[in-house]
């Protein structure tokens, strides 16, 4: 649907931020749906668990990436602030602000996700759900 609307008129920073946020929300939803089944089988007392340490580490990494959706949501608010309050035009936002929005929204969670992989901190916590930082 986004592809079809792109043919009819050019995308604005609003459209690009919204599509990026939606993409990360879909990835997050899939990871959260699969997470209970990917706990390490050896250490979990839950039923229908098929995972191992590698699957838990993967889910922890994807959980860290899920902060991209939250950051995009915040930058969507910044976009509205810039247009409504400060009167910036879409071309000004696209040129001056939008690249930094995308860089930070993707870069920060990606960087911290890879640092977590490198340090080996993703594991199933003793209390709570999901595989995330536990060491």
What key attributes describe this structure?
single chain, 135 residues, mainly alpha, 67% helix
Summarize this entry quickly.
It is built from six helices and two strands.
Structure description:
Strand 1 (122-123) and strand 2 form a beta hairpin. Helix 2 (13-34) packs antiparallel against helix 3 (53-65) and helix 4 (67-85) packs antiparallel against helix 6 (98-119). This protein starts with a helix and ends with a strand. It has six helices and two strands; from the N terminus they run ααααααββ. By secondary structure, the chain is mainly alpha-helical. Helices cover 67% and strands 3% of the residues. Strands 1-2 form a two-stranded antiparallel ribbon.
| Helix fraction bin | 55-70%
Q: How large is the radius of gyration?
A: 18 Å
- What is the mean pLDDT? 89
Structural class by secondary-structure content: mainly alpha
For the record, give the distance between the C-alpha atoms at the N and C termini, rounded to a whole number: 42 Å
Which series of helices and strands comes N to C?
HHHHHHEE
* Total helical segments: 6
Low-confidence stretches: none
Adjacency order of strands in the biggest sheet: 1-2
Write the layout of secondary structure elements.
Elements: H1 2-8, H2 13-34, H3 53-65, H4 67-85, H5 90-96, H6 98-119, E1 122-123, E2 132-133
Antiparallel strand pairs: 1-2
């Amino acid at each position: 649907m986004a592809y079809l609307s792109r043919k009819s008129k050019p995308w604005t920073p609003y459209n690009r931020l919204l599509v990026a946020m939606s993409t990360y929300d879909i990835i997050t939803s899939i990871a959260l749906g699969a997470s209970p089944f990917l706990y390490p089988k050896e250490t979990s007392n839950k039923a229908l668990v098929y995972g191992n340490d590698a699957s838990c580490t993967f889910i922890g990494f994807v959980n860290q990436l899920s902060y991209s959706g939250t950051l995009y949501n915040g930058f969507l608010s910044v976009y509205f602030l810039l247009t409504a309050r400060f009167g910036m035009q879409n071309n000004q936002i696209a040129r001056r602000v939008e690249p930094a929005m995308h860089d930070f929204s993707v870069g920060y969670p990606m960087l911290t996700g890879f640092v977590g992989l490198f340090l080996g901190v993703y594991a199933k916590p003793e209390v709570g759900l999901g595989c995330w930082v536990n060491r």
